[in-house]
Specification:
Helix content is 72%, strand content 0%. It is built from one helix and no strands. It has one helix spanning 8-30. It comes from candidate division WOR-3 bacterium. This is Type II secretion system protein.
Length: 32
């Protein structure tokens, strides 16, 4: 049952990285 896709930690890390990337891209687009 361990190899059933995302674990909770992987899901949280993915969301955090996606959030940081979105904020960085928005900041770059805003200050360009």
């Amino acid at each position: 049952m361990e190899n059933k896709g995302f674990t909770l930690v992987e899901l949280i890390v993915t969301i955090v990285i996606f959030s940081i990337a979105s904020v960085a891209f928005f900041s770059f687009f805003l200050f360009n």
